[in-house]
## 1
Amino acid sequence: MSILPIRITGDPVLHQRAQEVDEINSETRQLIQDMFETMDAAPGVGLAAPQVGVGLRIFVFDYEYEEQRLRGVAINPSLELQDLSAEELNPETESEGCLSIPIERFPLRRAGSAKLTALDIDGNKFVLEVQGWMARIFQHEFDHLEGVLYVDRLIEPYSQEAKEVIEEYGWGVPGLSWLPGEDELEP
């Protein structure tokens, strides 16, 4: 297993729709194991294949949900969402971050529940219906497979703040990455 470099916003693979996985083979399984190791080292609660430079529709996740640990992989997922709340955005409870925009966090409204349908590492179909942060994780990772970063969904003033942060760090250009466990990221 290997820890893989995580691509930073601006890398083309992060900004285009990932391709369907045609076959789950030894290379796919190795990628998934490397993604788990990379996510754990980062540390993160989810990681999509495009974040490690691979344009395939795969994401891994690991989160304590309803007193149990949900750790798994979603291959070729689909996601059904409930309607978004009309309540005012709460920056304290609705902020999220991203390993491809490290260090920073911004508030973003997400659906409160989600239904994930995907294949597991053995090619078996599964369905997970979740709420709260687990639903947020699935939406965030699914967006990566669509070529969308969470900052692309921000409303003002957070959208402008994110643009300024990305510019300040020199991100937003192709070829930037960081390696969990080796690169020190500081605000």
## 2
Amino acid sequence: MCGIVGLFLKDKTLEPELGAMLAQMLGVMNDRGPDSAGFAVYGAGQDGFIKATLRGPAGTDFEALSRKLKETTGEFVRIVPHDTHGVIAVPTDRWSSVRASIRGIAPELTVVGEGSRMELFKEVGLPSDVSKRFGLDKMTGTHGIGHTRMATESAVTTDGAHPFSTGIDQ
């Protein structure tokens, strides 16, 4: 059994509270999916930029990756760490070369989401713990979705955690 929650804010004044509200909703689903959880938050984007969420093993040094990307691509890429994930934003026309550089520098990293506004996070553990690890309660935006998973036919891994991105900002 799994659980899905979602929130779409029509009142702009509530956008700073999106993460706190979504974290509370996700926490209520602890019993429906205690194996893993994840969420996607749609926040501010920047025209002409791709925002991507990278997932790596525990202890991934995103600051070192940023330095290596500067050496490789000649472009400074700021990576905002969130536990095992990091969020980057690069000019749209440079994304394919930066993505290829990431693959070469850190093949253990996975791009779990990309687009102009979406940030996607997922990990093994109780939904309330996963949302705390990534600081969901501090995130802002217009809408978000959360998923909890109780594995019934496959291993409990981050690779099996939901949500999955199916395309740009999806």
## 3
Amino acid sequence: MKLKSLILGSVAAAGLSTAGFAADLGVLTSLDVCDTLGLSGLTISSDTNCLQISGGVSYEFNWGDFRSEAAVASTFDGTRNISIDDGSNDWNSKVEAWLQFVGTAPSDFGPAKAVIKIKEVDFTRVNNTAAGYSVDNDGERQGLYIDEAYVSVGDSTVLMAGKKGSIANLGDDAPFNTLGLFNSDAIDGKGVGIDGDTTYLGGHVIQVVSDLGNGISVQAALENLNGDSLFQNVNTNTGENAPFTNGTLVGVVGYAGEAITAHVTGMAFGVLDGTVESWAIHAGATGTFDAFKVRGAIAYWDNVKFNEQFAGGRKGIPAGTFGDQNVLNALLSVEGSFDLFKIALSGEVANVTGFTSYTDYGFGGSVGVGVTEGVSINLAARYFQNGFVADATDDTFQIAAQLVADLTETIKATGEIGGYFGDAVTNNPAIGENVYYGSAELAWAPGGGFTSSLKGEVNSESAYKVTFKAAKSFN
């Protein structure tokens, strides 16, 4: 019989002894490696390793007439589009599944881990046109693949190496108002300046993070060592490629206190060839003081390479152009919460210099009022000025009214009506008039980690969309 079995049997016998005798034993320490490491959830243990298993599945189905779009606001980072009627039915179906295994064992330097995350994406998009059916994957990665695979060791200081996400902190920069801001919406994850879902961050990495205590942390990494790039296409006119294709140096200093969170993240692109031709910095801070919140963020990206070789043109830049810009983004947002209502105000600015030069800016605000318990009304508006236009009249207004009601403890209903106005809307030949829209959604969360929703949308351009979602995760 193994020694471990004898010991566990002795402990169990002690646990069945009288209360007085058990009190004399003091605190009993579990011999299971998962308990020793403080790990919980769905686990499997051996003598030396604890294996944590987690995963999830999500499904989304869309149907309607929504594929054709027109821009109501144009920013350097992208456009805010609305669906317009093209006389055809569109639908897509998407399944995402992921499974993650984390094997942990004790070491002299702290927990030693091996992490493997497997992901599968199955996406089908169909546009029913007069010419027939077309199916594509919307540019999204398909099939079964390894999303993360890395090792780590350490406690307050952790060394990580392999394939994983970036350590870059790009947070503390989302506006508080209900509708957000136009330029912020064009950036993945909302915020300022640096798109958080790009291939020049993360990938093959060597990372070190350290908790210095008192809420202060420092991090450093070499990322994108596999040389992926968002701008991998070479300009056929010049043969030039993006300067940050191979290797990214990332450094982060962060603070997390009771009332304030803040960070500064620096990034240098293309370091493997010894020449840094492009770099960026992102800083953000959030303060919570009783009933008020204040958030400020700024980002600067020097020498942003863009390639309009295959695009339809960005901000008036014709297709076939290959150039660079310097982009400065800043955002300020405040929120006040009172007994019956909540007020939020936000502002943003984007200054672009280089191949073209202009300044975009925008504002937004919202007021939320609690009508009764579980029922609230949100009134919101936002404005955006496209500074690239010479006569400075390419502006967009959006207004919206939203009703949110908890029908039961597990079912929430949300309804919204609103519209888009301004020269950017009425001067767009694909639109030519103000646009009004409405939507209604039922969200159901019965517990057990399961969530689902059904949403319908329609606008005055005769476009419509019905969306069903369902998801469940486990750990």
## 4
Amino acid sequence: MTAPNRADLVPVLALCLWPLLCGEAVASGEALLIPVDGSIGVATGEMVERGLATSAEQGAELVILRLDTPGGLDTAMRRIIKAILASQIPVAAYVAPSGARAASAGTYILYAAHIAAMAPATNLGAATPVQLGGAFPGIGEPETPEGKKGEAAGAKDAMERKLVNDAVAYIRGLATLRGRNADWAEQAVRESVSLNAQAALEAGVIDLVAPNVQSLLHDIDGRSVDLPGGPRALATDGLAVRELEPGWRARLLAVITDPNVAYVLLIIGIYGILFELANPGAVLPGVIGGISLILALYALQLLPVNYAGLALILIGVAFMAAEAFVPSFGALGLGGLVAFLAGSVILMDERGMPISPAVIASTGLASGAFFVWVLSRLVRLRRRAPVVGTEHLIGAIGEALDDFGAGDQGSGRVRVAGEIWSASTDSPVHRGQRVRVLSITGLHLSVTPEHEE
């Protein structure tokens, strides 16, 4: 029996090692489940894009987006929808588990998917774009005594109508493409209405209600969906399902691109750098501040930032810090605090993921406390400011360094205010005795023993 040729072992080893080398691969005839949980942000969009690309490369039968979201960034939502519309693999949006919701941005994604499904006791809707700091048309807008809104309110209404009309056109286009209820979609945008799973099925908003993923795969088996390459019949009954695990990059992005985290990192970075500049050699504040500032700037360039808000935050911190070096009786500090809070409120120029008011209030209180501490310290320093000249030595208490007698015949040295002076006295003075300064002539003091005051 001849020994096997080494060259013949190469294909065998390659086949054995292939599953280890390609751990992210999706097997042919497999369904990939991508969880979309929590607010939809940059990390969510990147994870969905990566999952769809991997599925297409490996020839998966189906991609399931399991939705449980209150909404999120408009830019991330549109990124996900573009990836779905361009996908060569059928995509099923599935609101699950029971108790989940697909609100706001989740509703748009559900409408864009080839298959729309919900688990029992779930809901979708409330797709009106959130306008920061104001109501939507017809909701809570005060009128002038003449019954007409002011020019500012009119301009605000015009902008809000543009936003709502744009959202309506977008979701109606998705509904028409997938053959779903476009009228209810418009109502969800204009009136923020919602539907439960059974009502959504009866209204033609979704395709089916399924209690679990296996039931979903069984019910959609044999259905035909339209892909960019043409119609395709689904063969999903009994498919194996693998859940996509987010990588370390997606996890990091999910943390730092949260508006609240990015904002806190920005504040820590600014104050860390300022502390290091004020105390050279401290090192640790500079290291923490530098890392935090870089992470914050990276996150902010991924988020829709209002740069006027960022400028106000920087100016506010600069003014509060300047109060310690340019005394202005609180004007700089107070103005800086106002600029800081205003910039924090308008920093995120996006509807759906504003910075939490609690986070803004906490950082504002911390900055205000810092400003008050600096101001009070300056007031104390001014009260203790030394008098210029030698007149302040009169009446000061000192210590005799020599024994010397009375009159001009006896003189010696005394220590007053940390300095050594020559002195004379009308009464004998002993070394170590406390003396009080009566007058000063040039660099010579006239003193008297303290008990003869």
